[in-house]
Every structure is written in C-alpha cells, then in structure tokens.
Design goal:
Blueprint: H1 7-30, E1 47-52, H2 54-65, E2 70-76, H3 95-108, H4 122-134, E3 148-152, H5 162-174, E4 182-185, E5 194-196, E6 201-202, E7 211-213, H6 218-227, E8 239-245, E9 261-267, H7 268-272, E10 277-282, H8 289-292, H9 295-299, H10 302-306, E11 311-315, H11 345-358
Parallel strand pairs: 1-2, 1-10, 2-3, 3-4, 5-7, 6-7, 10-11
Antiparallel strand pairs: 8-9, 9-11
C-alpha cells in the first residue's frame, strides 16, 4: 500500500481526532471555574494538623516535614511516621516500591500481623526520621520538643488496630516529645472513624461516612489540647465554607493525587483581621467529598470551633485513582519515593496552600 493510497484513511483519522479534540475543548469550556484560595494574612507559626486513618498518617508526615511551623498534630486511627516504608524499597523506584510498601502498610501498619517480625518498630522508625532530618529532608526533630500530640484509637476499631496506636505513642516518645505533651484516648468503644456528638453511625460501627456518634466532641477536644484554652462554639460567629482550586498548587507536580477542589472554612473575622491561626484537617480513605459529599466537612465539628477562635480550617481533598482506588492520602508511596518528606507532592501542595492563606491581603 502506497502513501497515496492511504491518504483517505489519514484524512478520516484526522477528522475523528479533530472532533474528539473539539469535544474535549467544549467540555473544558463548559466546566465551571473554581475560585482560588484567598490570601488572608494568616499566621504560619502555630499551625496545627489532624487526620483520620490515612489522613492520620498524612498529618504525622506533614508535621515532621514542617515542624518549624507546625506545633501540634492529632492522629485518629493512625500509626507512627514512616510505618509503611520498607527497607527493601529504598533502592527501588516506580510502582514496585509502592506495592511492597502497600503490603507492609496493610499487614503491619493497620493490622498487627507483622509484630513477630518487628513491624512496626518505633525505635527503628525514630532512627529513620532522624536520618531524614540530618539529610535536610524534613525539619530538625528538636523543633518538635515543645509540640503537642493527640492520639486516638477506638477499642472496636478492626481497621487500624489499637496496637498500632501504641506504636505511634512509642515513636513520639523516642523522638523526644515529653509525656505530658502527649494525650492518648484509647478507652472508647469506637469503630474506625472520626468521633462526633450526635452525628454519624453508631459508635462501635465501621461504615461510611466514617463519622461515629460516641457522644464525644473529638474536634473540640483535640483542638483544645493542641491549641490551649478555646472559646466555646457560638452560632453568632459566622464561618464561610469556600471551595477552591487545589490544582493551582500542583501545576508542576507529577502524580500528586489531589482532587480538583478543596475546602477551607474561614471565620468572618479572618476576612478583616490578620493573624488568624490555621488548622489542617485531612479526611480518611473513602471519606473525601467525591465519595461522601460534605459529611466529613460538616459533621466532624471543626466549623463550630473555627468562628469564635479565629481558626481557619483547611480541608484538602485526595482523589481516587487506579493506584489509589479509595481516595486515601499517600502514606505508602503511590505519589513517589519522596512522600514522607518536604518534597512529597501532597506535602508540597498543602504547604503552598498554607503560604497562600498567609499571604498579605
């Protein structure tokens, strides 16, 4: 077949490609614009962070990466920093590394099936963190000595077992956080989820939307421990719920795993007054807006405390994908080998969000 003889087929292919590109362009044009994250002249120092499940691991990772500005972290149904990182993946790049880590994550950092093989090993994980700090990949560990750590494990949680929460406690002890700066709540018959008052499924249940009604205001308790004395919730203290474009903070990041939209809760006073503090709240697996709507945002209770305490609550969103089917935050390396450090794509993007919130109005 000569080049001339296939010319009609090439023309047809060109027409099909053109139609497809036109359709894609029309879809993009019809997609509504997502607003940007506002500059609010917020404080960077004194930032706090919390998370549930994969969000708990992410909260711990972000804290260690940026402990110069983060002064407290709350891990709900999570475990110690770097738990899923296998020694066998340090020289491996690509999907194979994440697969090996994922197996370790499930069996040793959620279940306790690898305890006989020393997984998790808080002392070893503390040494790994010290190594990262000495290499400048995370902030120095001595910046965490005065920080506060809140840890929660439900006695009915069969997804991330309470023993894994104990390993998180031992990890923080081994990196030098004083005992009186750590609060561990581990006596509540809760399933796997974020704990609330009069919201969600029955306390001992593990089911979507992973908000458990245990008659306990977890948001208020952890914020009070991390931040100190707080003003009580006041309906008169108005809080805006703003949806913003997350991809604006990830344009140069590959495989970042972020959804297009994130949410931030902004007290009315923070629109006019500089110096509001910031709290980052990470959802868990199968708990993003794309999966459960605004349930975590509304029913977790963070918004009740935001207004009267001039606290901006940043609620970034992870996105489900082939490598991450449940929309989890990256705590096993699906975004790349830097996921535990300041160069991790998700850590980079969220730090940029903080910088934007702290920018001059």
């Amino acid at each position: 077949m000569t080049l001339w003889s296939i010319r009609p087929y090439v023309r047809r292919l060109g027409t099909v490609v053109g139609v497809v590109l036109l359709a894609l362009g029309m879809m993009a044009a019809c997609r509504p614009e997502v607003p940007g994250l506002p500059a609010l002249a917020a404080r960077l120092d004194g930032t706090t962070v919390s998370g549930v499940s994969s969000g708990a691991y992410m909260a711990g990772q972000f804290h260690l990466a940026h402990s110069r500005i983060v002064t407290g972290a709350a891990l709900i149904a999570g475990g110690p920093y770097g738990c899923a990182q296998s020694v066998y993946t340090r020289g491996i790049f690509g999907p194979g590394s994440a697969l090996i880590n994922a197996s370790r994550a499930i069996n040793g950092c959620m279940g306790n099936d690898l305890a006989a093989w020393g997984v998790p090993n808080p002392q070893q994980l503390a040494e790994q963190a010290r190594g990262f700090a000495s290499e400048g990949r995370i902030d120095p560990l001595d910046t965490m000595i005065g920080d506060r750590i809140y840890l929660f494990s439900g006695t009915k949680d069969e997804t991330v077992l309470p023993e894994i929460g104990v390993a998180a406690l031992r990890f923080y002890e081994r990196i030098g956080v004083p005992a009186d700066h750590i609060k561990r709540v581990a006596d509540m018959p809760a399933g796997h989820g974020f704990i609330a008052e009069a919201k969600g499924v029955a306390c001992s249940t593990t089911a979507q939307p992973y908000i458990n009604d245990c008659g306990y205001d977890q948001a208020g308790d952890l914020l009070s421990f991390l931040l100190g004395s707080l003003a009580k919730p006041d309906a008169a203290a108005k809080v805006e719920r703003l949806v913003f474009d997350q991809h604006a903070f990830a344009k140069d990041l590959i495989d970042h795993g972020l959804a297009r939209e994130g949410v931030v809760l902004v007290p009315e006073r923070c629109r006019t007054e500089a110096g509001c503090r910031i709290h980052i709240a990470y959802h868990g697996c199968r708990q993003s807006r794309a999966i459960v709507g605004d349930t975590f945002i509304e029913d977790s209770g963070y918004g009740r405390w935001a207004g009267p305490n001039r606290l901006i609550v940043l609620m970034p969103q992870a996105e489900a994908s082939t490598a991450n089917p449940y929309g989890c935050w990256d705590w096993w390396g699906y975004t790349g080998t830097d996921y535990l450090t300041r160069k991790g794509p998700q850590i980079v993007a969220v730090r940029r969000m903080l910088d934007r919130l702290a920018a001059a109005k």
